[in-house]
């Protein structure tokens, strides 16, 4: 199983149901196949053309842009990457049109701050958070590790479409895409006009360099394998790689100290992906004693809940200190969730998760437009009755 894709079938079902529920406020958006990028070697794992979805802005949002990067884990071995070639995680041949919702939604009622912006969703088909760049292609596997070239090619195309004249812009993403929003944030800002107002939003992308239940650094080892296989090192922020071992730069806690562009961190303190893959990876739970707890926090024993509370403490300690980082926004709820910006029911609906009566969409908008300082950290589980189990994108 590819690193970062647990319960793949369930995730697909969750996504489909989520989109169906939000159909009343979602936009059907066709795909843009960037065939011109193939000649530059900017391709998916299987060598197919990269794809993004584009909904043009209008009215007051005509010169504003939000670029949202899709998530989907990583592949750390050739075998895992070969599996991805057979689906939309590694080939645009399997991609289909999708709907925009949440932070990309086109409804003024449900997404008042960004509904009429130029809205873009970048599809994820490289398995490296858009950091890979290896020239050689193994003829046995025909794997192309070109994530960084894909990102460069798509951004170049968007600049030519009018983003080069942007007045306001956001680079965002979910999960592996949320990490990518952090890793590419400063570069994104540098490519836009100096006068542009640019910020970045990372949803469920704040992966911590944590220990698992056996005391091992499983996820650190995995990220090292990703960086080595994909040739990611040269595309990670040099301000980070000059200070620490390159694989550590997949952990935002090592990147943020030298970031220049304001960032909003949206994350669940009990991030369901991180609990399944950082705290309790399958290799650390051979007897499957955590099987129920990893699927549903309500199925955790009292001792397992104690472990989860310790994980929350570890997660919070890895966050930047609010008083030292006034430009950083935060919405850290106590939900058992992963990705909360891509679906309307978690972004800005009546039943959306909230902290101190503030919904995610409102918190992000207030932070972006400097209407209010928005740094909210929830109380420990199970204090928040507004939580819903989300795993979108």
From TrEMBL:
SUPFAM superfamilies: alpha/beta-Hydrolases. Residues 1-26 form the signal peptide. GO terms for biological process: cell wall organization. Coiled coil: none annotated. InterPro entries: AB_hydrolase_fold, PAE/NOTUM. Hydrolyzes acetyl esters in homogalacturonan regions of pectin. In type I primary cell wall, galacturonic acid residues of pectin can be acetylated at the O-2 and O-3 positions. Decreasing the degree of acetylation of pectin gels in vitro alters their physical properties. This is Pectin acetylesterase. It comes from Triticum aestivum.
